[in-house]
Amino acid sequence: MVRKRRTEPPTGGEGSSSNPQESSGVGRGRGAPQQPQQFGGGPHQGGRGGRVPQAQRGGYGGGRGRSIPQQQYAPSEYQPRGGRGGAPPQHGGRGGYGARGGMVSGRKGLQGASPRTVPDLHQAIPAGLSIQPVPSEAGSSSSGPAEPSEVAQQLSQLSVQEGSTSLAIQPASTKGMKFPPRPGRGSIGTWCIVKANHFFAELPNKDLHQYDVSITPEVSSRLVNRQVMKKLVDTYRESHLGKRLPAYDGRKSLYTAGPLPFLSSDFRITLSDEDEGGNQRREREFKVVIKLAARADLHHLGMFLQGRQAEAPQDALQVLDIVLRELPNSRYCPVGRSFYSPDLGRRQSLGEGLESWRGFYQSIRPTQMGLSLNIDMSSTAFIEPLPVIEFVARLLNPDVIGRPLSDSNRVKIKKALRGVKVEVTHRGNMRRKYRISGLTPQATRELRFDDRGTMKSVVEYFYKTYRFVIQHTQWPCLQVGNQNRPNYLPMEVCKIVEGQRYSKRLNKRQITALLTVTCQRPHEREQDILRTVRHNAYGEDPYAKEFDIKISEKLAQVEARILPAPWLKYHDSGRIKDCLPEVGCWNMMNKKMVNGGTVNNWFCINFSRNVPDPVASDFCNELAHMCYISGMAFNRDAILPPISARPDQVEKVLKARYHEAMTKLQPKGKDIDLLIVILPDDNGSLYGDLKRICETDLGIVSQCCLSKHVFKKSRHYLANVALKINVKVGGRNTVLVDALSRRIPQVSDRPTIIFGADVTHPHPGEDTSPSIAAVVASQDWPEVTKYAGLVSAQAHRQELIQDLFKIWQDPVRGTVTGGMIKELLISFRRSTGQKPQRIIFYRDGVSEGQFYQVLLYELDAIRKACASLEPDYQPPVTFVVVQKRHHTRLFASNHKAVDGSGNILPGTVVDSKICHPTEFDFYLCSHAGIKGTSRPAHYHVLWDENKFTADGLQSLTNNLCYTYARCTRSVSIVPPAYYAHLAAFRARFYMELETSDSGSMASGAAVGRGGGAAGASISRSTRAPGASATVRPLPALKENVKRVMFYC
Questions:
Q1: Are strands 568-569 and 190-196 parallel, antiparallel or unpaired?
Q2: Range of 766's domain?
Q3: Cβ(780)–Cβ(831) under 8 Å?
Q4: Which run of H or E residues covers position 1041?
Q5: pLDDT tens profile 429-465
Q6: What is the 3-state secondary structure (H, E, C) of 460-526?
Q7: 649 within domain boundaries
Q8: Could you tell me if 821 and 952 lie in one domain?
Q9: Which residues contact 990 (CB under 8 A, 6 or more apart)?
Q10: Which of 32, 339, 623, 763 has the fewest Cβ atoms surrounding its Cβ within 10 A?
Q11: DSSP state of 552
């Protein structure tokens, strides 16, 4: 170890940006302000905006067009009038914002933003909205909800303040607030029994006590805290703790089954650190103060489980969770709510110095059957415990070992090793550990330091002191410890400490390797879960015994129903006009799209060097023919011959071909309908660049095809691409027969708009990138098949959608309103000729701990958007959260009642036993499995003014899953939520101009919904807009693009 004496400020190292593409190309202006198109037939469409001080600006979220003062804000079709366009009937005296509508605004605690002058620019403007910060954790599906203050009053005193420019809700208590109760259980479908990975937990009959723990000097490491408390319990359990065995959360709380023999007591604990060789190195003394804080009452938990109390007692649940985690915490490596160990399964290499560890997820949950322990198998990436030199060789390639590092390789090493803990190997049994903070700017052979007044080189020092000859003197040293007093270690004397989870972003190859490891058939996963429960031996767990917690070793047997698949309508000109899917699948043979789109003017660009022009032409002909026989009006002749181009000239080539085509078409008053693009299989940032240029600059829809599919020309592949092209040019592929015959409850009886919303967050390790919000909404009724989508960039890891509703002051036009909801409502009115009289809102990506904040904020935005169109326009709203990041798995009890992959059949729904004790939720497996174990979607209703029955909402959700436009399969989550995810994923390309390892979303490529390493648990904020730095807006989508399903 060499410590450099600093005589000058630290030398700056290489750039540490984890994604260089994030620094450019965001929110570029696209031309001069334009006169807006009249969106809904009236004079006002919400307003455009320019620069604002906060982060809530969208790609094109928010109404566009000219705005007028507030008293004239409503488009003509939203003014009260008779006939079908009039206001919906009011329910229970809910006029405008009466006893049941909207959310609180302008009450105590609200902070108004100062009015801003907003020029009439092309970019939408956010309101200055603001909620007090409320931290939450997204990865925890069983974490308790945040506690909003006076939520019941907020929900009962819903009001809109027309001049308000901010929204502030300060949550503090959930007392009195209830989500909708379960409206009975469903009865439609074929009854069956399934097994769930929930294990019944008997509620203990113990007197639980909570104690505050203070450890001085304070340390940030939970591991050290646990070591201190373990030593304390081992030393004083018999003499001072009344023989109690406490459970400790690693921070500030200690729990016991019964009281300790004191109210407050101090302890002195000495920890002896030891090296691996057993040599005692140093001793540290800690003062521990244990003080009685509270009693955790299990009576209220019992009342909640019986449905006799509305609020879940989170303190009692937390105690039980900590007790059951105490033993695994000492045995395994904890990550979030999961535990990993190389002893729980074979390690698998993921490449580049990473390996996968097997583990299990564990969480105690309140359910209808009582307390349940949810156990699931899990895998995640760890750094291999290699010598640092070997790790670097695997990270780059072995050829670099003998050469000086290039700048790019230096940056790659620095990113991979920053924060990693290493131990030294050159001092025998003295295996001291350090954490890497960076690399030295100079090579090892150039490093010199002051050793008691004598300048020595690092190479000389290691030889004279340790008789160690440094081989790789051309490489930098590792910089460890404090940045102000850096210590230098040559790479070859360091080894990576075992058990360090890799939390940064995995590349495509590593993700594929990890998915291969985690992909298990249902029967294998079920057996692994049972083995894990037996291995954990909860019956022998001393902590479970102490607290009298008993865990069953049998999977829960749960009643389920298999909902019938819906009939699908195709065009009458095809041989097959109606289709009944079988096991979640069907095909396009002998069928024609119910509404075929038109493609008259198209051309092709080939960016793949290994695809010759004749092959490209032949593929385009085959694709055009497939579109034609599938029911589209598709011109077989392109307006320009296909050309080959280099990927690094994508923008130049696209614009040149676009202008060449428009030179031909513009005199005839025509536009380009479609661009077909052939991409290399490994295309890096090309796909994202192409989509950004086409959709935000040129205004054309495109279909990308990978070269491997171009050569194969599989009919199945061509048919799937035809489906995507059809919806991109405004067609419909299929429609539910029940929708056309007006037989869908709560949808067909009156004009209904169905929304889907999602927020995608940056990958792990990207600390400054904005989050992307997307909202889609159905644009046809009664078909509910076509969805328009809006996107918006917002503050980093912000979960609340900031651009749902916006309001600001303009010096000329007065109060101006806009936002995603308003624009989509106006668009629905323009498309259907009717205004929505019912709203169904599917919200993806919200954890249980965020339910209250998301509901309060986003339902209020929906209310305000409706009221901004007409003062008394308040259609009833149903707000449903869609969750895929949970750990409930369902297994067939009868292995004959399975699909081809061994999974439960599509349409399997569960609304009993493992569901919430009182609230309206259900698990629905709407898709057929392909590989691995199917994950059912969890739907939880947070607000329901439409009074859905269990059968009504379950059947609607299941049936919608058969209308997904991109394939002839039912999908795993309801399509509006799926489309919102696709739109948000697409919008990230508009911002990240040089997407490196994100891969391609070209036709045929799978789009993962996780967005990171398996098992990741990343916190997401539910703080309100305006709480962080300004986010640059996304470039605006062109008008003709956002009218169609461009994200498919």
A1: unpaired
A2: 735-886+938-991+1034-1047
A3: yes
A4: helix 1039-1042
A5: 788 899 999 999 889 999 888 777 788 889 988 998 8
A6: HHHHHHHCCCCCCCCCEEEEECCCCCCEEECHHHEEECCCCECCCCCCHHHHHHHHHHHCCCHHHHH
A7: yes
A8: yes
A9: 26, 59, 691, 692, 695, 696, 791, 1034, 1035
A10: 32
A11: -
pLDDT at 486: 74
The token pair at 973 is 């989550």
Question: Where a domain ends, among 258, 278, 296?
Answer: 296
Q: Which helix (H) or strand (E) holds 710?
A: helix 707-712
List, in order, residues 6 or more apart from 453 with CB less than 8 Å away: none
Give the tokens for residue 860: 């209020």
Question: Do 155 and 101 meet the contact criterion of CB atoms below 8 Å apart?
Answer: no
Quote the pTM value.
0.81
pLDDT in tens, 396-425: 877 777 777 888 888 999 999 999 999 999
CATH, residue 749: 3.30.420.10
* Shared domain check, 750 and 659: no
Distance (Å) of CA 1023 to CA 55, 169, 414, 603, 861: 13, 10, 32, 47, 15
Task: Answer yes or no: are the C-beta atoms of 566 and 926 closer than 8 Å.
Answer: no
- Residues 976 and 839 occupy one common structural domain: yes
Domain boundary among 669, 703, 731: 731
Q: Does a structural domain hold residue 455?
A: yes
Tell me, yes or no, whether 900 lies in a domain.
no
Number of domains in the chain: 4
Please name the amino acid found at residue 874. Answer: Q
Distances (CA, A) of 802 to 56, 987, 990: 6, 16, 19
| Same-domain check for residues 769 and 724 | no
Give the three-class secondary structure for 611: coil
Question: Would you tell me the crossing angle of helices 222-236 and 314-331 to the nearest 10 degrees?
Answer: 90
**CA 200, CA 533: separation in Å to the nearest integer?**
12
C-beta of residue 466 within 8 angstroms of C-beta of residue 508: no
- The whole-angstrom separation of Cα 797 and Cα 139 is 13
Interval 800-822 mean pLDDT:
93
Q: What is the CATH number of the domain that holds 396?
A: 2.170.260.10
